Amino acid sequence: MTSPISKAGTAPGAVDHSSLYPSPYKEFWQAFSRNKGAVAGLAFMLLVVFCALFAPWVAPHNPSEQYRDFLLTPPVWLEGGTWQFVLGTDELGRDLLSRLIQGARLSLLIGLSSVVMSLIPGILLGLFAGFFPRLLGPSIMRLMDVMLALPSLLLAVAIVAILGPGLINTVIAIAIVSLPSYVRLTRAAVMGELNRDYVTAARLAGAGLPRLMFVTVLPNCMAPLIVQATLSFSSAILDAAALGFLGLGVQPPTPEWGTMLASARDYIERAWWVVSLPGLTILLSVLAINLMGDGLRDALDPKLKNAA
Amino acid sequence: MSLLQIDNLNVRFGDANAVPVVDGLDLAVDAGEILAIVGESGSGKSVTMMALMGLIDAPGRITADTLRFAGTDMLKLSARQRRKVVGKDIAMVFQDPMTALNPSFTVGYQIEEVLRQHLGLKGKAARQRALELLQKVEIPAAESRLDAYPHQLSGGMSQRVAIAMAIAGEPKLLIADEPTTALDVTIQAQIMELLVNLQKERNMALILITHDLAVVAETARRVCVMYAGQAVEVGQVPELFEVPAHPYSEALLAAIPEHSIGAERLATLPGIVPGRYDRPQGCLLSPRCPYVQEHCRRQRPALDPKAHSLARCFYPLNQEVA
Amino acid sequence: MLSFIARRLGLLIPTFFGITLLTFALIRLIPGDPVEVMMGERRVDPEMHAQAMERLGLNKPLPAQYVDYIGKLAQGDLGESLRSRESVWSEFLTLFPATVELAFCALLFAGVFGLLAGVIAALKRGSLFDHGVMGISLTGYSMPIFWWGLVLIMFFSVKLGWTPVTGRIDVLMDIEPRTGFMLIDTLLSDEEGAFKDALMHLILPSIVLGTIPLAVIARMTRSSMLEVLREDYIRTARAKGLSPARIVFIHGLRNALIPVLTVFGLQIGTLLGGAVLTETIFSWPGIGKWLIEAIGARDYPVVQNGILLIACLVILVNFVVDILYGLANPRIRHQR
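Predict the joint structure of the above. Result:
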């Protein structure tokens, strides 16, 4: 009986502790990189971000320069295409590739700023709703219910109808539309955490309300919020493009992907590339972000794995 | 010929080289007898019965020399043919009644389903029979319970419904897989009594999977002790309890509080059941056995006749014949 | 059951008033002078301006204006369109069936194929089919549907010539609008081939509008089904000797449907949002296109109360889904 016990007693000493307890970042990356789709999405997004950051140097032409002799030139691999315009030109003779690259700038800008503009107030409202469940909480949640009663695109349309079209108003509209999901998510996470013993311990240790909110509870609610931020980043790009397509978003001649599609509609029979390419760019970017979001969700929050 | 004959049953999860969860199990059950299978969790008791019912899915694999029920070779049956036997001639009652019933359907519907499937009863006739079955399992106000949903019933009541469902097809063999483990202590005795009464009345065979040895002593005629997927001892009930041959049976009996009156603390066997990757080369109990010899570590014993029972041990205990 | 419905109805009231506040605010938040904005002129004759302010009820203090607004709503007065001078309500009623018809077909498409794909993917977990369904549904979920519509038109209408490009019915066909639902009206009319024509007009818009719900339903059904198939009662059903079809579709799907139904309900809201885009692409004469055109023409009464009507519709649909949810899930129904 003695031999197995002594063996068991010595075994852990020989084990390398660093492999047992990897740093959170390493652990996260291991989980994330196991999801091939997520890595592919990340790679594509890095490319898009690169193009957006260095648009003036990456783009072969000025996106608004009109080459009058090259109206609706097809992409290079089709008959009549030229290496001068790799992806062809639009109805005014502007280089499609340069416009798409410039459009990446706008889409990322809209996505990023609307996420920031809804994430911060969303977290604040959610924290308050969670910490004050008597009166403030329900009234905040009722307000969010009202906002959720309208389909998100319709609410964005309504807001733009008030504010008028344009880049900044698009960002505001999208930020308002995505607010309720942050509030709900934060509140739900806060309510879950508030019953935990470590919160009670912090209370007993005399932590004040701001400290409890932002230092004790909030960091433990971040995982679902990060996932939601990724997902709402992709829907922000989609909604911005939809608004542009309806003529309510960024106005032409600014090369926004949705706006480009709207003006390309008339050439559906003659020049498929002016219709296909901006839409394909939108689809691929949104798909890439959603793939990343799935990977993030699996890596950060295994509990959410089965949620749709 | 026995009602159920199992020879050399193996169940593996994964390929043919995977460690078997059930390892060369032999078992026979006669019509109308009560056989208890005891052993700790993970010893393969439930998996054996699931294999018999055809409830093991890929990657699980079943092999056996014989798996015969009432003269039919269960291994040769197509899935469709097996479904004619399962639920009718062999029925099973599971451990947790609160999750074993479908929450979306009424009690009556779930019983009538069996009647329709196996006896061809429909409409009023089926409802009438379902009512009789509920009365049979002693559910008060049975008429009103027919339209109740599972969440409206208590655990004991749900288990009665599950039993009614199991006996609906007039089975020749009823398998009860820890039927009282999830219930309150006060209900446990009632459910056991119900099962034994039904068994006597219908002369069905009853396989009782349990780790409650007190229940075994009261109800079963024969008992099979399982350890790590193997049957380590099979014997008649009073003898096996009084003069166990296998050290593991002895250890199990010593762990019953009633048996250790006067002792400072309950006897326990050191160590745990071997897992998937640390199965010993010799007797599976050898790392934990207090009587272990060098021979035991090298070779696996077979299930052989001993003085009072069949046991899988080179150095059986209590072999003096009275 | 009745008390369950009553409780849910009670929850609707504050939401409804919240929506009216929103639409009330809508017309008052427009930057600049509302009358000038609506008339599209810079200098409006002061007398006409005062009349317009009074007609729109903008000359009283805000609370009084709100009470007026609610009072008019209670009488069923939703104002009239600045363009057509027709009442908003009657315009809504004429256009609404077109949207319902489109949404219904889209949901039918999404529901049938989404459930089927989800169930099969769950049963064949890890197979090529499963990976295919998951990949396609994530793509569908990421789809800019306004572009998707253009691509389908480009391929099926322009290149192959299989389906008509826009509208609900061939312009040369004279269909009497008896129900407002083109599929039914064409069946009732004597025009030859009208039903087939209406159907052909419906196919592409339904696919476009149904794409995102399809993706969501397929994903949800799969994960919900996977969860249910692990439940003990599925084992019980198998131990009863039931057929695999019965186990999957009666015992499994019935329980797996409960979360899917909720998602289905939420999709109806998304669907109405998507209808705005789909109707614009296909020139489908429904309320989505109506609303967008009203915004373009600064027809504020239509914008304001059109949004109110759509919001009420969404609330109503969610309410019905809630009730259905209760019917599907006995545990909720019996909660007190």
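Chain A touches chain C through 49 residues (CB under 8 Å).
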